[in-house]
């Protein structure tokens, strides 16, 4: 099963690391605690839309672009799972 909070966290971490930015840097710009951002990235916390928007802005993303990326990732994972189940 694919969890939304894990996919969101992976997408945020991927974007942050592609920008060669630290957790501390993004947390400061998003005005969230470093620990909280870390938990969101690891899929341990499900951030509100307001906090997700702040994190996205700190990364130069729109909330819509993040959600599009997450939707594609989840759809791909679900499709792959269906293919494996059908093959069995």
From TrEMBL:
GO terms for molecular function: DNA binding; DNA-binding transcription factor activity. Residues 12-66 form the HTH cro/C1-type domain. InterPro entries: Cro/C1-type_HTH, Lambda_DNA-bd_dom_sf, TransReg_Diox_bact_type. Keywords: DNA-binding. The keyword Calcium does not apply. The keyword DNA-binding applies. GO terms for cellular component: cytosol. PANTHER family: HTH-TYPE TRANSCRIPTIONAL REGULATOR, METHYLPHOSPHONATE SYNTHASE. This is Unannotated protein. It comes from freshwater metagenome.
